[in-house]
Amino acid sequence: MKKRVPVSQIMTKNVVTLSTKDDLVTAEELFKKNRIRHIPVTAGDQILGMLSYTDLMRISFADAIDEHEQDVDTMVYNMFTIEQVMVKDVICVAPQATIQEVAAFLAQKEFHALPVVDGETLVGIVTTTDLINYLLAQY
């Protein structure tokens, strides 16, 4: 296995983002349409926070209701803003951080995605899925 490979080699570069002006219904649509579980919240190229699909599920009653699930989700989502639900103190990594460093960090924490920033500019996102796919490609 290669050592010292930068995370920029495996990160997603075309990142789906949200702004604080977007609503949670839009967020859910982006999660489902793009089949992703984490979306950085940005102002321009700068990261303000991170929203995960799990964050949405925590405020949703969807699991408890079958019949009018979409109506309930929309009603609940309209009670909150992205800024209220997102994680604000986001830990970021630089593009030159190694895959090993990122893997060790994620293995110790309770989250599964890290924004990749060059200075203050969001340039990508790396997830546990990216790490698993990288490891699978090594075999």
From TrEMBL:
Pfam families: CBS (PF00571). Residues 11-67, 86-139 form the CBS domain. The keyword Transcription does not apply. Transmembrane segments: none annotated. CDD domains: CBS_pair_AcuB_like (cd04584). Keywords: CBS domain. Gene3D superfamilies: CBS-domain. This is CBS domain-containing protein. It comes from Croceitalea dokdonensis DOKDO 023. The lineage of its organism: Bacteria, Pseudomonadati, Bacteroidota, Flavobacteriia, Flavobacteriales.
